[in-house]
Sequence to fold (223 residues):
Amino acid sequence: MINKLPILYSFRRCPYAMRARLAIAYSGVQVELREVVLKNKPAELLAISPKATVPVLQLPDDTIIDESRDIMHWALQQSDPDDWLNSLTQPLIDENDGCFKQALDHYKYADRFPEYSQEHYRKECAVFLEKIENILKNHHFIQNNHLSYVDMAIFPFIRQFYFVNPSWFHDAPFPHLNRWLHTLLGSPLFDAIMIKYPTWSAQENGVIFSYDDIKRNNIADSE
Fold:
């Protein structure tokens, strides 16, 4: 075990885990990352968080933080160089995590919800997307012309919507949202948090996850 580092249980493609990793990477905090398979959750994760959803953060004093937004807050309380916490738009994130996420799940897995068509669920999602589109008409990011907490909290879910049908999204009447999404998809921060790591097992150490280390390694690799 890597001594005295917070331990982050994560799953690479989970949008909740993505936003936790984004905040941790931005803050510069080091954690021991343990990549898990959700169909085969390790006993160590089950022991500290009975609901066993990711992300889960175990601090060195054994405090457990098992909500993604709480992990984001924790990371930003350690270091917040661009003052993200002061750009928090709670109602918008609540809407993302509530109505939009529910509609997104129905849209992505429409065959599991045959009461309505996939197009119906997409229209439900579009209510929220249109709201973000209108916000982005005025500046590059949701709060202003700089990245903020709210961008990072919402982005992984709009990314998930996009990948259900990229062609539809490209052609949809959301030019500002398309620009915003692709800016974030192409960012070094997102590249860093989407590196593939092997699945963690109790017989092995986790990976030291640090944005600064990733940037240094990328520079070294390119030399």
